[in-house]
């Protein structure tokens, strides 16, 4: 093979970079179009597709062959294109998500026109405007049945994994048109979805396969409507962004390119604790292709950022303290990603290393180093109700136990990406995925020393967030680099950097002491919590406050005391993560509930019924629950569903059941493999054992604790009679856009596809506040509703005046406004209002009911969601392996605005809880990250998916939109303790440390057997 040096752009915007090229050309057919391209040594197929052909539907989630998001077909076989050498694709036929529908519809191959690749790469820099009008024509006309089924069945959430899922499924159906569920699971076993609607993905594939075999339309999913039906609200609706997410046209931040764009890389400290004594950037600056290298000295404004407390350095300066491995020391902008990375590696740093604080208990000890000036204590949080001493004196039984939970990572499939774009008028645009666009704006402006109005955040589609995209990551860095270079700058985290830098779920140590009467009435609960908030505050105080206030569970207990110490350590910062601290405390208290039930010889379900919060209860923080408490209904419905599926009465549910077909063990040496560490077998006993476990939970909706909780929304009717609803609130896959669209459709009496949704843009959308605490359906749902009502009132006035009728005589029906015999379309209404000098739009800022700070009594929160789950596990007593077979999840969500979206949330929540219990752990070693690749952080895949039954319970809350409360977090909270309680019920091993150590289960079983046989 001859090699010669050529001048060829690595990207179309970098003209002077020299690379060694093979004279070999690369010929390949992509989506029926033949391309002949220069071969670039080392190039991967994903880079060729994304960067040279601008086919950005193929996504990069890990770049290490772990997630499957980049799957394309090469000669009909699914391959992960992030590691597939482009050279190997020579002469082959490639199909990407963009080509699926056209291949299905035409199949003809043609030669690429000269400008085709460039045309494919037309830069798109959209706001996240989601138009549903394409739903006017049938999906089947433009989508492959698989794509259509994914949309119809609600398998699409954030959408980032979906191209990989669909391409893998397509390859399966090509070779097996009638797959079983097991065959689907096996085919998709390496394609991860963190939104994790795996059951719905399975059903979508089955529906598509059936349609392809029979020629019949895609079978619709069987999702019941809300019991509180309205015209639009409460029925199933398709996502307005669903089609773009299945056909590869959805644009996420890394899909954007701009003329003259530079690429950035941050130099990270990579030591957990020390003082930066020297930083030499000279070699990096001298590297050809480097345009800027900035350090802390170059920060024009405030040096620290943060969501509540500004304690997180934008960059650590010489003489300053490094507090975790992910601290930034310098940032580089260069003509290519490769050069930026080389330059970053050339930056030399020296440190005066300090002792490392590795956990929150150690951090509170006297004599340990203080990580921040004010010490290691971020916050001591206290909950007090009643009289603890009196409560425990009244108790007949007192139990006390300590539980541990590790650090967890969000592991959203889309890593963080930000692009800074300097504007000619001196302003700065930031393109990014953000859960709090207006907070990003504040933090960028502070660091630049600018007025906030000079910064615009243009939020892009997010490939998952789960709380992990609330803090700024690259936003400030790209703003600084773009300002200095006056060129667009992109900073894309690779998976390693993403794992290293962004805030995690708090590791906790939780001691619970619980006292009860013999009859099962709990009289006292005392908790002591330690939360590892890592190097910086992020939302640590808020998260650990929720962990503390919910630490006695959803129970009516007269005497409660909880103390929490949120401590700084030298681990990565911990912040928001779905469940917001309640995930950890629910594991502890729900384990204690089962321990108490056993001690009192009361069934676990019954113990919870006896103590469940109800209307009239007073919570731990002194709040009277006056409405909307569906906990008892959740308990009853899950209990009867368990009885129904298992055929067992309630009192038998929690006993272990040996699986009849599991083979009896033979003693060692009788033809079986040695079944135990000791070599002993258990004659006549099946090795697979099943049991159910049960757990309950509750979770506040909204910020609470006295924080003003507001959201703004604007609704406008256009001259063509369509509507737009706007709010900065974030869509990260959870389905807020469908909620907003449906609500406005309801209020304006139009079809949802008449309503476009625009979100996450600080110039174009009013402030919707943070997407956190399951608040958006409630607050932005209400803001959208009242904005639509305000517009309706304005239309009513216009019509009443025009036709000289009373306002009560105006009716809104099926897209027409009626006025006592007259009528107008919305298109006519919009023109009429403009002619009358009125703007056909309305802005509404909704403020949720006031709440009280912790410790002051009264309403700390304006609503709570309640959830109950039962999990059936099967345990292999030889190995300790735990399989979750079924999960039944009932959630009181107030009212189901979009039951299809709710289904996806519940499935994803359960899978996240399952990962929390069994597979996930973010491992640190003395301040260094061990789980620094996706391969080392095991999120559950489709093979681990149990059968998930979702039961929607609707106890409306008066102030919520149509009665709705949140669901995003509650559906994940009881899963882990339901699983660990089931493990105990099956084999008698109490799990008090997560994730479950399955080897430990086996060891305990064998040690117990050994003990029993010796006594
Ligand atoms: S990006 Fe290729 S497998 Fe994850
Ligand atoms: S839809 Fe699969 S990762 Fe979000």
Description:
Residues 1-22, 114-126, 130-136 and 664-684 have low confidence and may be disordered. Strands 1, 2, 3, 4, 5, 6 and 7 form a 7-stranded mixed β-sheet that branches. Strands 11-15-9-22-19-20-21 form a 7-stranded mixed β-sheet, with helices on both faces. With 1015 residues, the protein is an alpha+beta fold. The chain is globular. It contains 25 helices and 39 strands. The structure holds FE2/S2 (inorganic) cluster (2 copies). One FE2/S2 (inorganic) cluster is lined by residues 157-162, 193-195, 413, 464, 733.
Keywords:
1015 residues; alpha+beta; 7-stranded mixed sheet; 25 helices; 28% helix; globular; disordered N terminus; binds FE2/S2 (inorganic) cluster
Largest sheet: 7 strands, mixed
Approximate strand percentage: 15-25%
Unreliable stretches = 1-22, 114-126, 130-136, 664-684
Find the structural class using helix and strand composition: alpha+beta
Number of helices: 25
Radius of gyration: 29 Å
Number of strands: 39
What hetero molecules are bound to the protein chains?
Answer: FE2/S2 (inorganic) cluster
Blueprint of the fold:
Elements: E1 3-7, E2 18-30, E3 33-39, H1 45-52, E4 71-74, E5 77-80, E6 93-95, H2 100-105, E7 110-111, H3 116-120, E8 128-130, H4 145-153, H5 162-175, H6 181-187, H7 198-214, H8 242-247, E9 262-268, E10 274-280, H9 282-286, E11 290-295, E12 304-305, E13 312-313, E14 321-322, E15 328-334, H10 337-346, E16 348-353, H11 360-363, E17 377-385, H12 388-394, E18 397-405, E19 417-422, E20 428-432, H13 437-448, E21 455-459, H14 475-485, E22 489-492, H15 495-501, E23 507-516, E24 522-534, H16 540-549, E25 559-568, H17 582-600, H18 604-611, H19 631-646, E26 657-658, E27 688-700, E28 710-717, E29 723-727, H20 736-748, E30 755-759, H21 776-803, E31 810-813, E32 816-819, E33 822-825, H22 826-835, E34 841-847, E35 864-876, E36 882-892, H23 899-918, E37 924-925, E38 928-929, E39 947-953, H24 975-987, H25 998-1014
Parallel strand pairs: 2-6, 3-7, 9-22, 20-21, 24-25, 29-30, 36-39
Antiparallel strand pairs: 1-2, 2-3, 4-5, 4-6, 8-30, 9-15, 10-14, 10-16, 11-15, 12-13, 17-25, 18-23, 19-20, 19-22, 23-24, 26-27, 27-35, 28-29, 28-34, 31-32, 32-33, 35-36, 37-38
Helix pairs in contact: 4-7, 13-14, 16-17, 17-24, 20-21, 23-24
The protein binds FE2/S2 (inorganic) cluster (FES) (2 copies).
The site of one FE2/S2 (inorganic) cluster has 12 residues, from loops.
